[in-house]
Amino acid sequence: MARNLTNAAALFGSARKVIAGGVSSDARRSAGTPLYVDHAAGSRLWDVDGNSYLDYVLGQGPSVLGHCPPEVVGAVADQAGRGMSYAAQHRLEIEVAERLCSMVPSAELVRFNSVGSEAVHGALRLARGHTGRPKVLKFEGHYHGWFDPVLYSLHPALDQAGSADAPVPVPGTLGQPPSAEGDLVVVRWNDLDALKATMAEHRGELAAVIMEPILCNSGAILPSPGYLEGVRDLCDEHGTLLIFDEVITGFRVAPGGAQELLGVTPDLATFGKAMAGGMQASALVGRAAVMETIASGKVGHAGTFNSHPVAMAAANATLTILDEQRDALYGRLETNGRRLMAGLREAAAAAGIPLLVDGVGAAFQTYFTEATEVRDYRDFAGIDRALAARFHAELQDRGVNIVPRGLWLLSTAHTEDDIEETLRAVTAALAAL
Ligand SMILES: Cc1ncc(COP(=O)(O)O)c(C=O)c1O
Ligand SMILES: NCC(=O)CCC(=O)O
């Protein structure tokens, strides 16, 4: 059952002549004709051939209120008419920073950038500058943007990734400086003993431990009970800063991110995506004593578009709504997400297809596996992803758009009827596998 993609195919032909590879991010490369969006509203996208989709990608996370929430669109339009770019101070940046400091447990001081990768870049530089140490520890399968120091192959084949006890960073691209690898230590996630041993091996060298507090780039995986508390203690013992990369989880899993949901406060945290409801704004937040190293100018931080007025207008409108209606909106995300998760399990059981559905309501993963648990990247890498790719394609043909690797992101605009419509498409897509 293939949908009509005549216009999209023609556009892709034109694009390939002027855009390298025909797409503007490697994450948008597609086995077939990529999605060409004409417009979006609420929980839906419409493509250039008139097909509509219930959207569980949401711009890879930003549109937590759905596409085009009127309050955000209004705030953006109003600000655009008052000036799009100042590279100067303005009221809205203070309002957004105040909102971040009141919503996010670790946020005592804030600096803004445009995208998540930049906020991570700032966090790592600050950690190195503040501690005077050279190395950063990250976890297998965790993604922190496309900048050199953390851009290692996200999903390497396990036979390239070293042993579980001693994983190695696998370069994700040509062109990274060899020095980047020397300053990066990679560890298996959700395994406190492994972290403890590795931190002891690098005693006195580690500026920071960075992680997605709920892993959303290799499945959707919650930390095991006690794990984050153990990581927090180890970081304190070693004088290493703990950074939570909340670019996906921020303002999605709870008003104060995964750190609020899970009750562990990092030293620094990065936010992006959902923070500005669809515009591009990111933030580095943290403990005042650490952020002071930026405040004093000892660690440099800059950017022409930082605290971009239009993005700040979007962030202010988005965060105001999420904060003031927190119970209703986060309750809806959780309830609708759980309903969809349960429906997916039922549909797969009825079709006789082993499917693990795990995560939280606002961000969950469908894994084609007989396993009952996925705890880290090694588990995720062991699952055949060919079926996930086919499921993604079959769903897209039936008007449901998910992140190709099997991640589903909910918005507050998704309704119970949307969930029912999605589950009908799921049943048909599973039957077609
Ligand atoms: C956890 C995480 N950190 C950082 C980034 C980088 O953000 P951006 O693509 O806005 O640079 C992403 C997504 O791309 C992400 O998922
Ligand atoms: N979570 C990973 C992404 O969202 C990547 C998006 C992109 O770089 O296009």
UniProtKB/TrEMBL annotation:
Its EC number is 5.4.3.8. Keywords: Isomerase, Porphyrin biosynthesis, Pyridoxal phosphate. Its cofactor is pyridoxal 5'-phosphate. It is an enzyme of class 5 (isomerase). Pfam families: Aminotran_3. Belongs to the class-III pyridoxal-phosphate-dependent aminotransferase family. HemL subfamily. This is glutamate-1-semialdehyde 2,1-aminomutase. It comes from Kribbella amoyensis. The lineage of its organism: Bacteria, Bacillati, Actinomycetota, Actinomycetes, Propionibacteriales.
